Fold these 4 entries.
Entry 1:
Amino acid sequence: MNKLEFANFKQTAIHHARLRLRLLDARRRAVTFSHQPDKDALQRIYVINLDRRPDRWRRVRRELDRFRDRNGERLSSLVRRFSAVDARYMEAGPDLSVLIPTFTLADQLTVDPNPLLRIDAEARAREIQMTKQEIAVALSHIEVWRLIADGDVPSALVLEDDVFMGYGFAGALERTWRSLDHSQNGEGFDLLYLAFNEVGDVAPVAPGKSLRHLDSPGIWEASGYVISRDGARKLLDALPVFGPIDLWLNLQFERMNAYAASRPIIEQRIDEPSTNSYSVLPVLSQVGVITREKPLLPTAKQLPGPVIAVGDIDTGLTALGTALSMIGYTCLSDLDCLPTAEMEALLVGQGDRAFNAYVNIGSLDADAIDQIAATHPAARFIATSGQIPTPAATPNQVLRLTPDIKDKWAALAELLGVEYPAFPYPSTLDTGMRTLGNTAPSTFRHANTNLAFDSGPWILPEKHRLPGRVVLEADSPDPHVPAPPHIIWTTNSRIDERIWTLRDDTFPSNMALFTPSNVTQNDDEVRLELRAESAVVRDLTSGAIASVAPYRYGRFRAEFRPSKVRGLVTGMFLHRNGPRQEIDIEFLGKDTTKMLVNVFYNPGPEGTKLEYGYRGTPTVIDIGFDAAADFHSYEIDWQPEAIRWLVDGEIVYERAMWNPTPIPDQPLQFNFNLWHSRSKEFAGRLDAKKLPSTAGIRAIEIRPALGTDVRPHVRFSSDVMNC
């Protein structure tokens, strides 16, 4: 795991300084290497590199060629490129005799201990599924070990393709190499870490020594290490690997002669975004040891555009719009025309546009597309049908993404010059063109105020929000897709564990740990209680419940009474991760006369690890009474075309498509919780003297709109704009 991907500003600044400082290193003769068969020299370098990343291969060769071996030859004379296993082509699971794609929280804690967690029966039972990227990385390293084990050199340097040699590399490596035992009797060194991050109880380096022996776990990274032929054979004999490769290597130290340099002399770069996905991070977040969130953003540095996509129905247009959104485009799709101001700005080449990608827009006919090509030199054009004409632009600006193209991500990445996404390509059915209406926005008698919004590709500033309202025309439910249950619950019935889960986790910005014992029920209400109670990872405990079933659209109503304690937040909300989507009702204990509503939107199908946003798009509504004084009815009406929030049956607020976000479109779980926010700016300083505190729930009703896999057909209102 490259922990620098989660570094703070200071750590990142130091890293970039070291990246520049290496160029001032005057010593370029690395006498540890030799292209001659010298027994005391490194004679081979393997670089693990994806076929689709020739830029990284060229860069790492340039990095190595800053140095010469003991005979004056460039280090590239020793390099062998290994074509890395690519996660995008992994359809079947790995051979279980080679790799078991799971590990446990106990395995993680063995390598990276945390004072807040224990290695106990629960940690040993908590299984973590490796991501496809972790599996591909592990399989690549295993195949390199096979090459070394069967090869003609006594040892080799193994590098991933995102490394650089730090200042003083040649001298530090020479001192470290001389300290090793290079005996040929099978008892010499097996493994030497040159790139690493210390996280466990690793013994300190003795004064004046250039390396330390590793007899216990505690080293992250496998991006730069030397492995002997005997060491490679020992690792192959120990197969199968389980868990990420750097974790598993730690668990082999007791059977190997493993060493690490006194300091890292090879480092991983962070000057370009990574597509690695770390399976352990969501688990560490849930158990409460990650307390600082980091948004996972689209990885493109600079997106070319605008992007215009046209085609026939059922050729993948709606999926293409989702895919462009996942890359980081602000994409408008499946409309018969653009708003007048947007159309004019696009045609004349003005920069002040709401969107930078347009998919299946009826008003973008052949003449309009030719004009866009003339006024936007960086424009890109995509046709999903073979017979659709495209402008006479340069070939690298036009793509025919027809349904027969199997690897659509590869084609898009080449057209747009972006990193191949680590997420699955969407398979959404085509919606077809919808009609944009010119109806005035709704007005409400309750005052509302927007707080600070996140700034991102799926949030429009107020001046750019789409005009008009939308109406729903839903397809008939698919009889083969079971609809989620219609739930009516009151205090007359007990909490059914087949329908509700009592949560036993937390999240980074929550200062309380949820435990089932903090959810109690009497004849009048279900109580969520937050109390000052020391837990392993928090000093507060609280209660939360969540629906077992996810829902995709519907009406979610509850009668409840929030807590009135400063610093506490009472939430009724719909939520998911991967991608993160959320629709909130929250009451801040510092002022329960106001209701906060919020939407978090990230695009993509199930498994898309986009979790962008700390703030979301919060709006505060003055409801005209103190919600903490009594029970009232609150409702989220979530439909494909709009979200409406109701209080005691009255609509108090509404958001339509792209006002300011798209409408969440993935199945979400219904939740209640009571928590203490880490942000004093948001919720205020905790009034601990008023603890314990409770939030009460008296009734819940969930009326699902559709089955979770049913496609809604959305039509905008019939007042067509003059485009």
Entry 2:
Amino acid sequence: MLHAAWRSLLGRKLRLLTSTFAIVLGVAFVAGTLIFTDTLDRSFTSIFDSSVGDVVVQPTGAQQSGAERTTLTVPAALVDRLAEVPGAARADGQASGSGVFVIGKNGRVVGGQGSPGLWRNATGALAAGGVQPLQVVRGEDPQGQDEVALDAGTARRAGYGLGEKIRLVNVGRRAVLTPRLVGIADFPDGGSLNGASVAIFSTPAAQELFLQGRDVYNSVWVTAADGVSQEELRDRVARVLPRGFEATTGTKAAAESASDLLQAISFLTVFLLVFAGISLVVGSFLIVNTFSMLVAQRSRELALLRALGASRGQVTRSVLFEALVVGLAGSAVGLGVGVLLALGIRALFGRFGLDLSAQSLVIAWRTPVAAVAVGVLVTVVAAYLPARRSARIPPVAALRDDVAMPESALRRRFVVGTLMVLAGVAAGATGLFADVPRPGYWVGFGALLAMLGVATASPVIALPFLGAVAAAYRRVFGTTGRLAGQNALRNPRRTAATASALMIGLTLVTTMSIAGTSAKASVDQTVARTFVGDIVVSNAIGQAFSPEIAQRVERQPGVGSVTRLRSAETRVDGERAFLTAADPATLPDVLRLDLVAGSLADLRGESVVLSQDKAQELGVGVGDSIVLRFPEGRTRLRVVGIHDAAFASYLTTLGVLERGGYPVEDSALLVSLAPGADGGRVSDEIEKATADLPILTVKDQTEYAAEQRAPIDRLVLMIYALLGLALVIAVLGVVNTLGLSVIERTREIGLLRAIGMDRRRLRRMIGLESVAIAVLGAVLGLAMGLVFGIALMASLRDEGLEVTRVPWGSLGLYLVAAVVIGLVAAVLPARRAARLDVLRAIEHE
């Protein structure tokens, strides 16, 4: 039996090629994702290992970067005290943070898109374990107020050399800095910044620029003496620390910093693995169809094996053995393609500022294990049903001229599929409307179950559609159309299974089309309804900017008022909360906030205005108080109003954030014009006033709405690109099904040619059959995508996405594309059928 299975496999290499290709794509996604994320993990872990001392001392709750960045500092006197701790070789005050970006000679920001612009002071301290951190390797350390050193990568990309004046954009009180470049920094022990830029200042300059001229630091590195462990030194340091400060070992500090960052970008792994799963699900339909038709074509051979004494188990195992070989081959190739995919993903993220080129790819043991396990498991499971059916062929069937494969009852498939759809609807509703952990998993599982249920029931669902297509073909194309319609109806299970692969891809494309179009329409509605100002000034790279910018804008002729918006991250009742702060005196000039309770005039002192949804979630009303955990300690804010706008969940004053320990940095400026001012002229004046700051953009309401829509367009486009692979697999499924169908009907095609059907009509017949399959998949996919898309947007109404819009034009194009796909998929099978020798075809068994 093993010898027979090998001969069967080797005799059908080309027929199994497309099935193997489906496995290759799915496994490549899995392997590529795991390789890329492991590489990312190793790279960031290496960075953080070289950015901490043996023991790190900082204020409790302090953060130097991100939305949680604080103004908490360590006094210089404490540094001297820590240097005298027994077991400490030295202690160095570290002034560091983010928000300084280098402007290259071409006038553009270096990095910025996702990669931070960091700053720090120059010290001679070693990192944890004696590792040499980023330090000046060419030139000299900066000494004066107007001197700076840059990391080698940033200096190269910006085009600056030693001795040149450079330009820095700063989030501090001075918006633009023009120091002289005196040093080039790098990692002597090897390392990378992953695209980030670092500006190194002298300690007095860093304190003057970023710490308001005070003799303080953001943290302290305590270096352990020989023979003293990090834990021992931490315990000794902790005993001399005053209240409000904490000591952490370098190992723990590095792990926590890396863990926080990797957790923030963990969605990349989930995102890519989801599309790997989609490719594998779509590919499984292709594999089921391929093995079903191959088993059907080998039915006489398998029946003869049964007649010669082979057991059912032997027949089943021989088919599964073929599937195992296909799965192993596809997994091996997929693993190799996964390495190339990981390189491609790394290059793609490099274009957005996350440069991992200095880190070699990490292929952990789990990657090949997962790749082989996934590829083999999917292939064997997909081939199990055809293998089981092959074992049911009775030995006596070998005595007949034709062997009929046993088919499952369509009624039973319809009942099972219906139950799966109902279970999927229940799971999706649970995730959307019930209070359950990980609701996204419930919704995703429900959608998958519903799609598989429709695929299971599709042979019955497809019968009316295929009947209508057959009737239309007969009227339009005559005898050729009649034959094409009958061929599509001949085996509804095979036709529906082939169409189901296309259905899944188009279901997801349609859902994303509705979600993307609706999200953009919601953004437009929110901007039109809420923003009543005239001009928006914001940072093109999504970062905060210096408060000096607002002062420049206020001085421009024609400006009526400037409302500063600031944001910060904190916690309320242990949950993460994002605060928005503004001046309530000028806020009504630029934003329409319809309060359902309270008054915006009461927003002063320690107070807050909540969105209606957030007030309901917290169970508070006007007059109640909520407690927020700020860097400077817990703060109680009184609720003075509740609004129903799609704006800030927590709205407070600028003073609350400053007193709470957050830096004075603006995230956006909303400008209203003075009476009679010309908007275009005022915008031009603001652009001139901020011309030395290329990170800023000046927009009117229409341009602002377009800017808010841009990330949605990019996300949807990326999803389309990933779903395109699933559609490629689906097209291969149509090609494979038609190709195997031509082989299966070789004698029938020969007879048709013998009685007068020419090659052109034969190609047309196969093309029409292919179009019927593609359009069936498109109709099912569009229908399900409509349901999923509308349900998804209904569930997101509470998140501010209030508009549901169906892009009918795009859906029409998808249907036209399905017809084109059908015609293209039929080219090779139709060409093969047309080239068959008539006499040999008639003699074919």
Entry 3:
Amino acid sequence: MGQEQSTLEKNGYKIESETDNGVVATKNSDRYLIRKLKISTDAEFIAEIEILKTITHPHIMNTKNSFEDEDQNTYYVVMDYCQGGSLAEKLKEKGEFLQEFEALSWTVEMCMALRTIHEKGLLHRALTPENIFFSKSGTLLVSGFGKIQGSSNNTHLDTVGNEVINYSAPEVFTEETYDAKSEIWSMGCILHELCTQQFAFSAETTGKLISKIISGPYPSLPDQYSSEFCELLRDILNRDPHSRPTACEILAHPLTITCLSKKSKTTAEHLQTQLNKLRAVADNLERVHQGTTIGSLAGGVIGAVGGITSIVGLILAPFTLGASLVVTGIGVGVGVAGGATAGVSNITNMVNQSSDRKAIESIIKEFEEQINAVAVWLQEISNSLQMIRGRCYSRDTSNNEDSNFNQENWARFGPTVGMGLGSVTELFRLLRVVNIGKIAAQASKAVRVAELATGAISTLFLAVDIFFIAMDAKEIHHIRQKHTDGKTRSEIMKFVQSIRQAADELQGVLDELKCIISAIPLLEDERELEWQHMD
């Protein structure tokens, strides 16, 4: 532990705790999960880490950094820390079957992560609920890649226990092969577990378990799940890997497209609520500036600690439904008492370390996280529609447009992704009426719009930093000082202006996304109506 701590500290990381998954450490107030690997120099492994460090995806845990301790022959991999816990923990907490939309939603997010890493030429090698995590705001992230776990064997059977074998595909045992299709099977096993709270395949011994996976009865789902949903799972758990759908084909299923459309709409609505709360922060702070707190603290020596506590409480009022106003009341009381005993440095430290600042930053991070996720979801819908049209229509090279519908290709494609007759008919109707090119352009625009949001959010983060550092006894002086030169000297009002400017920019981004979402028609099927009823 001493050597490990020394190595991490040398790289700027302070150990906070140890978990089964690695070491939790902090650096510059951010928290990370660091995995420690005892491996020899492995060019393939190093190359994989370098690829992972380049991937930025809302459903893949970011690999931030990596470094080696040559003396200890140890390799450290630094990843984002997920405060929402693992899927395995959530399954234990649930204690009941998931609704179809929730189970499908998590599976779609897993599928998008798998498609991304498969396109990069990588394999996960250990896809289990223990290696799937959630951010603080509930976004699913895939982590625990096999080689980061310490395994360098492609079939991964020499280094895993029954907990991974439960999710292993038949071809791993019969043909000793492991590829992208094997991970689709693992995802199917997880989907079954989400719906039943039980393993798709289980047995008393490893030998019996393997036998069940190879030739045992197909696991069924409870009656509450739709036949189309059950058919999709059955195709994912097809024992013939050649007939098993790819991640792209699963994302092209009508259920999946409908799920992503609904997720985009509901998330945009949630972001609008958060944005309204952000504006309420500015309104509350302006009221503080114009008289509420000033009146309470007027006259004589101003209690700096009380003033700061009041302001911090009022900032959070919109996010905590008024709970922080209790803090405000305490702050005002201290201020009236005139306790100007704390030094500027103590006040700054108090505010910087407060949970209030973390709460504000959490709201901003959630906005950034989810707006990027919506952009990716819209891109996935566009990609899926383009793939379906490409599979089922022949191309007229003279005008570079889709022309003849290929009945034979359509007949092969539908069953590949578990489409029943109703879904095939509905999807065919959709392809006939929608402008795929326009949707593709809109989806690409969504990605660019999300990038604009990142700039506004970065500016707001900077404003938060400046505000909390500058909020000391000098602030009260600036509040009471007249603006003879017409410039805003109060840090409170500077912060208010920053919030409102960022909110206006983010509103523009959100309005663009809403417009793009409305341009993508939903598949009109009964499952969407049922999902709306569940909400």
Entry 4:
Amino acid sequence: MIEPHAPAPPAPAPPFSGPARLPVRPGTGRYLVLAGAFVCAACGLVYELELVALASYLMGDSVTQASVVLSVMVFAMGIGSLAAKRLRRHAAIGFGAIEAVLALVGGCSAMALYAVFAWTGDWGGMWADGPRCLLVVFSLAMGLLIGAEVPLLMELIQRIRRQDAGGAVADLFAADYVGALVGGLAFPFLLLPLLGQLTGALLTGAVNAVAGGGLVLGLFRRDLTPRGRWLLLVANVAVLGLLASLAALVGDFERAARQAVYGGDVRVALRTGEQEVVLTGGTGGRPLRLFLDGRLRAGGRDERRYHEALVHPAMAGPHARVLILGGGDGLAAREVLRHPGVERVDVVEPDPAVVRLARGDPALARLNAHVYDDPRVRVGTADAFRRLREAAPAAYDVVIEDLPDPDVTSSTKLYALEFYGLARRAMAPGGRLVVHAGPVSSRPRVFWTVESTVRAAGLRTVPYRVTGRESGPAGASRALQDWGFVLAARTAPSLGLDPRTPRPRTLTPTSLTAAARAAARTRVLRLPPSTLVHPRYTG
């Protein structure tokens, strides 16, 4: 209780607590703070892009993943900015602690997410909610920490030399936005191709820790208590030590994680400019499997069933000139060349690494019957959309679309109305188009959207569905899998087989009739077509 004549308690000190005691001139100090803001902003944007890239690779649909990560992070940045108001009296030690935690969380995020993916199974299975929640947790945590940076940096820069708020904001935001530009360009053109996602994230965390800790301990050390300086130094050394240790173990971690995902017989694993390519088996009696970005694209016990169902119904008509979009593994071309009368096969594969594997890997070349040694087969590495735009009208009797599922965002434009319009132009009057449209049982709406889009391009369609056994990575469940296909032509095509060709091992006229009936039972009515400006496969 205050006595009647006792002096009143002192007013609370304002957040701004006087000029900082700097070891350098104020102008140099301001420059160093802005340089620190530049580096930290670059690191922050790398963390964001790394989360988007890794989540898109592991879960697919980059539009959804980018939207979730960026929206959660921007929301959290606002909360972090508000929360940082309480730290303004201790701006120096607060900023140093935040940067140490951000370096640890951001640097380890990629490895943590990949570990959960590798050792808990497919993100689409029973563990799907856990990894997606972890993605949101990382986005939220990094957003909170990044959002707290600017208010604390504003306080530090004002303590060096007071200036009007507008000028201080302009200087700080200029450094922040330019740093974000550098980080945004460094990630796809430097960090990702040279270091990969895991090492790139760890290196970014180390740079973040050095920049944040160095700025506080070097420029504002006189504002810290001896205990505060010691704690901040120990924290940053511990973070750098942990990041360095993890970087040294990245190779072993990737091998162990890859074995957990793909099994123990990985023979080829490489990161191209387009995707991750993994080849397993093919020796010692083990079935060969080709994975692109973690998704099985060829091999296993159902490889022949898939490719025969894709190719043979489309070849039951004129087929002298054939265009295969995708299919760089050569397996679709193998089925095409079984038909007499084929004069030319053009394979358009966007990733040259897949073609090199199909040519040079003994097991894969044996599986595709060495199709690239056949002079009728011509391969080009180009975007399928661009290749169709450049194709002459009526250039092909058969167009085969052997591409990733349509709900993979990078493939959405290849299942758009505009794409099928180009395919229709490239088809001869009696030509046929066949489209791999993804699984029917698990995504019927996607499948029937493909069919609706093909019809909207002016083609008549016959959809059909073929079932098999899933040949996933070792340890994955062997669930029933199916593939949906759409056969199309200018006039109603008949679903049959070429009688002049040796009978496929897995198809008969009766089984094709049953395949059409199986697809018809799943029909979803009145679906609008997908276009470039209104894609309908993602979400």
